[in-house]
């Protein structure tokens, strides 16, 4: 296939200072949960993106000095020369495929409490740590500013020596430099505070000094926010940002533009759609002649080309689209846009950073496994035999297993009980704001439909006998899970209605099946992820008076991991949904719901006609039990291999089901020996020397 000429503009080279990118696909800096701790894992992940055609590939935030330590989150680091070789793994891998590598030099200031290094954090003023640690910063004096400039310069030199082509001055996201720019927190009376010129002084100095240090070899980029805040109606307020950008316009080689509200910049698809930053960009290209990059969770090549043609941006910045599909540029280049694995905007990738574990992705199960498992999203070994495989259930796990086994060349039979594929994603995508989740199904269904070696049987609810009758060599059960109407109270599962009382309790499955509760309703959410809030919204939109109760101290606590909690709570509050935090649901009698404070056990009675439980799920393992029953309870007695995958093995997030399906497809004929050590990207202690040593002090007697 050939490239659509409308997309040619995306493949035009562009000069950025002393370097040239081969195309307009620019992976902006993004966190990985790997950073300095997992250099091989990180390097291979970035290298795969270079294989996939990205023109520029950046690091995550890269600390320039131990005084900027974001523990427990894992940044990259360029603290001393021993960091250089770790970064070389990445730059060499990226260069091998003709891409440029960029390093985002970072100093956290008020956002880093330095919990690991225990150095006093410093910022433009004495400020409370902005992520909630009970630490304040030291207001930087002139010496501190001199230190910072020296550290930045040294880190830039190390970045150059590590082989980077672009070096950043990072002036957004509430970190140190953003605070120097911000008149609300920069209350200094010296030459770094007050006037616009003074507040931009440090950023300008760092740009100049970075250029002076590495500018002959590396481009210098600045990350900068185009607005100060956003109005209630979502309109950006540029404030003095235009003037500020104009003042600095020609100093760097590249402007990487984002916005003040991170929850919108990194917005989940429930609240934020593609190209959401465009209204913020209206002035940027008119005040600088330098190349500009911005993001927008772009997955449509038409939108990307249009952004460049209309002069919104010069480069297509992407973090999530490059995670969901590291081969996105090559697919567009080859005229295969339909093969793009589009990001669904779930932000599971962000949870890697939140939880300090390697990044994972709902759409791309190979993300984070490039080094440890040697996986590549577009390359999979051919089949190891002529065996046939039956996959039962076409939710995310079954679809991914069938797709990947199909890619391997196996003869696959995919049986699905209903007439639609997709399982839970098809159902959940109909809930308010969740439509993009359907991409999990659509990508896989589209791929499967053109595979001659994959047969799909819809409306085929298989029994154990049916599975035997199919006569496949391998059977994967991906039959999913069903929401429970009881709840786990910390020790045991227990019902909240009296046995035999006839009082009905609904579950998310009932709501997704189209049932609605009668009258005022209590929604009890002890799942803690997105489902509670989404179902509450669905009921509210149906005109039902909803109260949402939960044992947690905040709404949908796990959505904090995906950087959406603030939006979720704001949204529910604005809808007028009543919220009761820190309460367990003990009992419902059809007219009253009895709650109890989790701290004091004080009861609280809510008069409601209905209760919807968003609690745990029960695995759909009847088929598994039926098959084992035919084999004296021993899977090895069966005439086929048998494995449960996804929610029917253990209910979890969609990303886990997709991963399970993919893993099954890769390992079905080559299972991992559980006794073999798992590759562990750890530091070899025999090679480690302390990077910073105090001069040895002679022991002295205290007189
Ligand atoms: P997962 O997230 O693990 O992929 P889902 O719940 O999304 O699980 O999907 C499970 C799918 O399996 C559903 O589409 C369901 O209709 C299907 N299914 C369940 N039991 C059977 C069965 N016995 N035969 C065929 N399909 C089944
Ligand atoms: Fe997109 Fe979700 Fe993958 Fe992140 S985890 S890249 S948001 S699909």
Broad structural category? alpha/beta
What is the tally of helical segments?
22
CATH architecture of the largest domain: Alpha-Beta Barrel
Ligand inventory reads:
adenosine-5'-diphosphate, iron/sulfur cluster
Pick out the low-confidence regions.
none
CATH superfamily annotation of the largest domain: Aldolase class I
Shape: globular
How many strands, what sense, and barrel or not for the largest sheet? 8 strands, parallel, barrel
Total discrete domains:
3
Number of strands: 31
> Could you tell me the radius of gyration in angstroms?
27 Å
Helix content: 25-40%
Structure, explained:
Keywords: Flavoprotein, FMN, Iron, Iron-sulfur, Metal-binding, Oxidoreductase. This is Trimethylamine dehydrogenase Tmd. Its EC number is 1.5.8.1. There is one protein chain. By secondary structure, the chain is of the alpha/beta class. It has three domains: 5-355, Alpha-Beta Barrel (TIM Barrel); 388-480 and 620-667, NAD(P)-binding Rossmann-like Domain (Rossmann fold); 485-618, FAD/NAD(P)-binding domain (3-Layer(bba) Sandwich). The strands form nine sheets. The chain has an eight-stranded parallel barrel with strand order 3-4-6-9-10-13-14-15, surrounded by five helices. A five-stranded parallel sheet has the order 18-17-16-19-31, with helices on one face. Strands 25-24-23-29 form a four-stranded parallel sheet, with helices on one face. Helix 14 (396-408) links the parallel strand 16 and strand 17 (411-415). The chain is globular, with a radius of gyration of 27 Å. It starts with 13 loop residues before the first strand and ends in a 36-residue tail after the last helix. Adenosine-5'-diphosphate binds at residues 392-398, 415-418, 423-424, 460-462, 478-481, 620, 623, 646-648, 657.
């Amino acid at each position: 296939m050939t490239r659509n000429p409308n997309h040619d503009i995306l493949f035009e080279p562009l000069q950025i200072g002393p370097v040239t990118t081969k195309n307009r696909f620019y992976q902006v800096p993004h966190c990985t949960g790997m950073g300095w701790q997992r250099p091989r894992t990180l390097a291979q992940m970035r290298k795969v993106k270079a294989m996939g055609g990205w023109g520029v590939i950046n690091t995550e935030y890269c600390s320039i000095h131990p005084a900027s330590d974001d523990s427990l989150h894992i940044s990259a680091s360029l603290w001393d020369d021993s960091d250089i070789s770790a970064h070389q793994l990445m730059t060499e891998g990226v260069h091998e495929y003709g891409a440029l590598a960029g390093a985002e030099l970072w100093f956290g200031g008020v956002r880093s409490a330095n919990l690991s290094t225990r150095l006093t954090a410093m910022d433009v003023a004495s400020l409370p740590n902005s992520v909630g640690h009970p630490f304040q910063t030291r207001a930087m004096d002139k010496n501190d500013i001199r230190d910072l400039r020296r550290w930045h310069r040294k880190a830039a030199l190390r970045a150059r020596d590590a082989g980077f082509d672009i070096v950043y001055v990072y002036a957004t996201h509430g970190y140190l430099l953003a605070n120097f720019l911000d008149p609300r927190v920069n209350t200094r009376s010296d030459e770094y505070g007050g006037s616009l010129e003074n507040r931009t002084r440090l950023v300008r100095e760092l740009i100049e000094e970075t250029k002076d240090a590495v500018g002959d070899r590396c481009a210098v980029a600045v990350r900068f926010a185009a607005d100060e805040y956003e109005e209630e109606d979502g309109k950006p307020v540029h404030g003095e940002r235009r003037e500020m950008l104009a003042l600095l316009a020609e100093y760097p080689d590249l402007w990487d533009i984002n916005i003040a509200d991170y929850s919108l910049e990194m917005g989940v698809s429930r609240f934020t759609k593609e190209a959401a930053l465009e209204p913020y960009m209206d002035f940027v290209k008119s005040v600088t002649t330098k190349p500009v990059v911005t993001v927008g969770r772009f997955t449509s090549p038409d939108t990307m080309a249009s952004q460049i043609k209309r002069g919104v941006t010069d480069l297509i910045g992407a973090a999530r689209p490059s995670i969901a599909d590291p081969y996105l540029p090559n697919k567009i280049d080859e005229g295969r846009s339909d093969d793009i694995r589009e990001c669904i905007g779930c932000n599971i990738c962000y949870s890697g950073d939140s939880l300090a574990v390697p990044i994972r992705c709902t759409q791309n199960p190979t993300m984070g496994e490039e080094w440890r498992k040697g996986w590549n999203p577009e390359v999979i070994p051919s089949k190891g035999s002529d065996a046939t495989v039956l996959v039962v259930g076409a939710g995310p796990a079954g679809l991914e297993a069938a797709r990947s086994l199909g890619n391997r060349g196996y003869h696959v039979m995919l049986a699905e009980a209903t007439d639609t594929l997709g399982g839970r994603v098809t159902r959940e995508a109909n809930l308010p704001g969740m439509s993009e989740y359907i991409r999990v199904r659509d990508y896989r269904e589209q791929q499967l439909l053109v595979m001659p070696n994959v047969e799909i049987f819809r409306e085929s609810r298989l029994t154990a006998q049916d599975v035997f009758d199919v006569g496949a060599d391998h059977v994967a059960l991906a039959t999913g899970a069903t929401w429970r109407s009881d709840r786990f109270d910390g020790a045991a599962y227990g019902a909240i209605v009296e046995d035999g009382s006839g009082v009905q309790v609904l579950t998310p499955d009932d709501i997704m099946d189209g049932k609605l509760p009668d009258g005022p309703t209590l929604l009890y959410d002890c799942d803690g992820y997105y489902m509670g809030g989404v179902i509450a919204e669905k009921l509210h939109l149906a005109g039902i008076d909803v109260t949402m109760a939960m044992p947690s101290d905040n709404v949908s606590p796990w959505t904090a991991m995906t950087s959406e909690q603030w939006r979720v709570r704001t949204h529910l509050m604005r809808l007028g949904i009543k919220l009761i935090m820190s309460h367990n649901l003990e009992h419902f009698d059809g007219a009253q719901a009895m709650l109890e404070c989790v701290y004091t056990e004080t009861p609280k009675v809510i008069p409601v006609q209905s209760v919807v439980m968003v609690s745990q799920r029960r695995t759909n393992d009847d088929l598994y039990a039926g098959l084992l029953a035919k084999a004296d309870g021993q899977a090895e007695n069966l005439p086929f291999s048998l494995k449960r995958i996804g929610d029917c093995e253990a209910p979890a997030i969609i990303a886990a089901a997709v991963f399970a399906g993919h893993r099954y497809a890769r390992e079905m004929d080559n299972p991992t020996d559980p006794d073999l050590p798992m590759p562990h990207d750890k530091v070899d202690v025999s090679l480690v020397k302390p990077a910073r040593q105090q001069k040895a002090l002679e022991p002295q007697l205290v007189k």
